[in-house]
């Protein structure tokens, strides 16, 4: 099976630095199921192409197969794995290009951090759902997609098309993001994996997909397919994605094999409960103008827009892609002139003062502070509480003590979290901020209450004291 990556960034041979594979060398890497060859069919200043060729050894694959692997009988030997891209190619690519996937490149770090023109071609790709599913999965990530069905037999057109497509992706994308997207989406399109999936698959998914999967409109479909539709793993992954912000809209259904059935009222996703709680706080405060700081793709903004009580609404985020999703969700391009004057979206970093943050009755920091490095948190405090000075600030963040109740969770709820406070740590932080900037603070819990560990989400409501000097 074959995968090629081409760039026209100049000098194009810088692709070798990003991949940590020299264009003048042909390199081979042994895998448990075959051999990977990396070579450069073309390498010039204007255009450079790297090819990854995986030669699968069916006997070695069968012998390395775990006891719980999905294949059985003759399917171990008679299959399409020798020529069709699958989880085998995804695993091989992830191993061979592991440093490139991390985004590290000491020789060209600025380039590794930048989006560059890329063309990715996979000649034969299993695509359950047809070419339409390839468009659905890749286009929201910024790719122009060509997914041409492969005929069953060129000599017999009446037989129709096979389940395979020739995939060509073109776009301006950071190379590390492109490789991580392929690592996740190749087995998703095939809807099959060559190995047994355990709880560590959730961590793998979030490591490769956390930066983009949370805002993908088909995040639930991708998660379910990647995890083989295993209910418990899917539920855990979706819950952890929801912790990133407002990304997962679909309710997380209880697993079919749950021993204890919870009442329907307790099946409301935590993300929904969080939105309900913050929305009610804003209404109770009587806020007329609200800014959602770190608004992500705009799910909570959508709720604010649909609430007539809020006469002025703004959303800000450091991610331009998230703002694009938010604009699409809110149908900004189709808003009436009056509605457009009511809503504002803008790009901004919360560690830098911005006059556009000021002048609001209330500000929301929903699942935001835990994504800020602790040394930079004081800068955020100065920007929000010291410079912008809204009448009220609503902060939500995970309760780290509750994590032991998440099945299969190792470490924090999302790989981008810099910390997850205990209730005492959150109390100390919120008391210090309130005292420093002239606010009163009240703390509450959101989600199912555990008598010993509290609730999964903790919330602080800061209200500015009357007579506090600006």
Automatic annotation (TrEMBL):
<dbReference type="InterPro" id="IPR024740">
    <property type="entry name" value="Hen1_N"/>
</dbReference>
<dbReference type="GO" id="GO:0031047">
    <property type="term" value="P:regulatory ncRNA-mediated gene silencing"/>
</dbReference>
<dbReference type="Pfam" id="PF12623">
    <property type="entry name" value="Hen1_L"/>
</dbReference>
<dbReference type="GO" id="GO:0003723">
    <property type="term" value="F:RNA binding"/>
</dbReference>
<keyword id="KW-0489">Methyltransferase</keyword>
<dbReference type="InterPro" id="IPR029063">
    <property type="entry name" value="SAM-dependent_MTases_sf"/>
</dbReference>
<keyword id="KW-0808">Transferase</keyword>
<dbReference type="InterPro" id="IPR013217">
    <property type="entry name" value="Methyltransf_12"/>
</dbReference>
<keyword id="KW-0460">Magnesium</keyword>
<dbReference type="GO" id="GO:0001510">
    <property type="term" value="P:RNA methylation"/>
</dbReference>
<protein>
    <recommendedName>
        <fullName>Small RNA 2'-O-methyltransferase</fullName>
        <ecNumber>2.1.1.386</ecNumber>
    </recommendedName>
</protein>
<dbReference type="InterPro" id="IPR038546">
    <property type="entry name" value="Hen1_N_sf"/>
</dbReference>
<keyword id="KW-0479">Metal-binding</keyword>
<keyword id="KW-0943">RNA-mediated gene silencing</keyword>
<dbReference type="GO" id="GO:0046872">
    <property type="term" value="F:metal ion binding"/>
</dbReference>
<feature type="domain" description="Methyltransferase type 12">
    <location>
        <begin position="291"/>
        <end position="393"/>
    </location>
</feature>
<dbReference type="GO" id="GO:0090486">
    <property type="term" value="F:small RNA 2'-O-methyltransferase activity"/>
</dbReference>
<dbReference type="InterPro" id="IPR026610">
    <property type="entry name" value="Hen1"/>
</dbReference>
<dbReference type="InterPro" id="IPR024026">
    <property type="entry name" value="3'-RNA_MeTfrase_Hen1_bac"/>
</dbReference>
<comment type="similarity">
    <text>Belongs to the methyltransferase superfamily. HEN1 family.</text>
</comment>
<feature type="domain" description="Hen1 N-terminal">
    <location>
        <begin position="1"/>
        <end position="242"/>
    </location>
</feature>
<keyword id="KW-0694">RNA-binding</keyword>
<dbReference type="Pfam" id="PF08242">
    <property type="entry name" value="Methyltransf_12"/>
</dbReference>
<keyword id="KW-0949">S-adenosyl-L-methionine</keyword>
């Amino acid at each position: 099976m074959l995968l090629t990556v081409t760039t026209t960034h100049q000098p194009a041979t810088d692709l070798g630095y990003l991949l940590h594979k020299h264009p003048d060398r042909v390199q081979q890497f042994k895998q448990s199921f075959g051999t990977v060859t990396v070579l450069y069919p073309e390498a010039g200043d204007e255009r450079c192409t790297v090819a990854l060729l995986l030669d699968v050894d069916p006997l070695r694959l069968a012998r390395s197969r775990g006891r719980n692997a999905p294949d059985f009988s003759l399917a171990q030997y008679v299959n399409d794995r020798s020529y069709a891209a699958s989880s085998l190619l995804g695993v091989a690519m992830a191993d061979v290009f592991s440093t490139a996937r991390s985004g590290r490149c000491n020789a060209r770090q600025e380039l590794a951090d930048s989006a560059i023109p890329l063309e990715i071609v996979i000649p034969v790709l299993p695509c359950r759902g047809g070419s339409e599913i390839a468009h659905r999965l890749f286009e929201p990530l910024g790719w122009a997609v060509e997914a041409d069905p492969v005929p069953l037999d060129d000599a017999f057109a009446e037989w129709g098309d096979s389940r395979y497509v020739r995939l060509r992706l073109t776009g301006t994308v950071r190379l590390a993001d492109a490789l991580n997207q392929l690592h996740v989406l190749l087995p998703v399109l095939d809807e099959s994996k060559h190995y047994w999936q355990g709880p560590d698959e959730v961590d793998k998914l979030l490591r490769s997909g956390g930066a983009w999967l949370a805002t993908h409109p088909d995040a639930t479909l991708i998660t379910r397919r990647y995890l083989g539709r295993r209910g418990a793993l899917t539920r855990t992954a979706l819950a952890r994605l929801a912790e990133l912000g407002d990304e997962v809209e679909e309710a997380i259904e209880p697993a079919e094999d749950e021993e204890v059935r919870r009442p329907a009222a307790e099946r409301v996703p935590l993300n929904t409960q969080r939105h309900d709680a913050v929305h009610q706080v804003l209404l109770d405060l009587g806020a007329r103008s609200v800014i959602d700081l770190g608004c992500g793709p705009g799910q909570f903004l959508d709720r604010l827009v649909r609430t007539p009580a809020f006469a002025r609404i703004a959303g800000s985020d450091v991610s331009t892609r998230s703002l694009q999703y938010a604009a699409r969700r809110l149908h900004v391009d189709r808003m009436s002139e009056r509605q457009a004057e009511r809503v504002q979206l803008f790009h901004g970093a919360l560690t830098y003062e911005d006059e556009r943050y000021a002048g609001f009755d209330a500000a929301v920091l929903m699942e935001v502070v835990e994504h800020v490095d602790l040394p930079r948190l004081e800068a955020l405090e100065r920007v929000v509480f010291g410079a912008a000075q809204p009448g009220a600030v609503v902060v939500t963040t995970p309760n780290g003590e509750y994590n032991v109740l998440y099945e299969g969770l190792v470490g924090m709820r999302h790989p981008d979290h810099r910390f997850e406070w205990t209730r005492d740590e959150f109390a100390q932080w919120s008391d210090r901020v309130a005292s420093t900037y002239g606010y009163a603070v009240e703390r509450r819990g959101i989600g199912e209450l555990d008598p010993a560990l509290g609730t999964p989400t903790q919330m602080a409501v800061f209200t500015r004291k009357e007579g506090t000097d600006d």
